[in-house]
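Lab notebook: predicted structure, single chain.

Context: the supervisor wants predicted structures on file for every construct in the current expression panel, including those that have not yet been purified. This is the next one on the list. No modifications to the sequence; it matches the entry in the shared construct table.
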Amino acid sequence: MGLIVWLIVGGVIGWLASIIMRTDAQQGILLNIIVGIVGAFIGGLIFSGGSINNNGLNLYSFLVSLLGAVVLLAIVNLFRRGSVR
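Prediction complete. Output recorded below exactly as produced.
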């Protein structure tokens, strides 16, 4: 059951991050899930373990994961286009 919640929350985080970074039209649901989960990992590294991967689902872990996903998309945009956008 935890895996299903992890995938759903990862998809929502990836989707919100893609809206913030204006890459929503380029991503599908699978890429949103990947961005959300990897972004949660990056956010956990930046904020020392406060992401959905390590903690339960609360507002702080959701925001840390969202920030990590935005950072991930900014890095991807930097390498793809040469600008963060």
